[in-house]
Specification:
The chain is an all-alpha fold. About 70% of the residues lie in helices and about 0% in strands. The chain folds into two domains: about 150 residues; about 170 residues. Helix 1 packs antiparallel against helix 9, helix 5 crosses helix 9 and helix 7 packs antiparallel against helix 8.
Length: about 325
Amino acid sequence: MDSQYHKGLHYFALVTAGATFLLLIAGALVTSNDAGLSVPDWPLSHGQWMPEMVGGVFYEHGHRMVATTVGLLTIVLNIWLWKVPSYPWVRALGLVALGAVITQGVLGGVTVLFFLPTPISVLHASLAPLFFCMVVTLAVVTSPDWAHLSRSFRDGWRKVLKGADWDLKLAILTTMALYFQHVLGATVRHSGTVNGTKAAVLVTSALIAHLVGAFAVTGLILFVARVFIKRIHDRSILRLVYLQLSLLCAQLLLGWGAYLVRIDPATQVQPSVSGVWITTSHLTVGVLLLVTSLVVTLKLMNNVALRDRGLVPEPTLAGQTA
């Protein structure tokens, strides 16, 4: 029996996704303000649960507070998923998301206790958008569009493995490329840290890899957008495609600004307000690009499964006029 739509669960998943997005911004503000070691201990902050919120402590401890809230929301979301009728893969995804947010907390503690080691910092920064993708996926699959088609995610993957849907393959490739580009960006952002000072050294190899990735991802997004605009007639998907193009333009401009901020941090006693705004926005827009591509992928999976069950006409997907 297919699982039914649970309005409360869906909205709670949306709230959890929104809180996770705020957590990503809070984490970006920690790095942009070079506040990673403003609180030298963990899990307490200067030996307290609630220290004085001044200077870098505001960003670092604030980040911990938001992270704790997201962790609690994820626990409640998992309990709710097990309380209502649901397919095993949905519950499993919830548990994986819970494991991811717990791992994030531990990695965050390790980065502080061991003075921001680059590999751990990069891993911490790379897991964050992956967790966000999991929560966004849970918000999407608990929506009304998926109420009578709980198997659609699995069916969509089967279609990909059989090589039947070119559009879906392109969407998955774009999402994977965007995530890999985020990892490269995290490497640039967290490499070159010396004695707790972020960006003390600019690692040229990491920067070049990120720039090459940026060119590749830009070309891929433009190509996929051109294909989708010609082939796909689902208006909700097309709106997301146009949104992605807008985000791409903003991201390229912010990337250039982030580069200018990154190349000469030594001349600044502390991060400038404009520099913090640019680098934080660059990370934030990058995450939005990623989840936009993810939602397009999920919608295509859903449409493929609906079509195969005769619940949506072929023109909705691709290659024909409505």
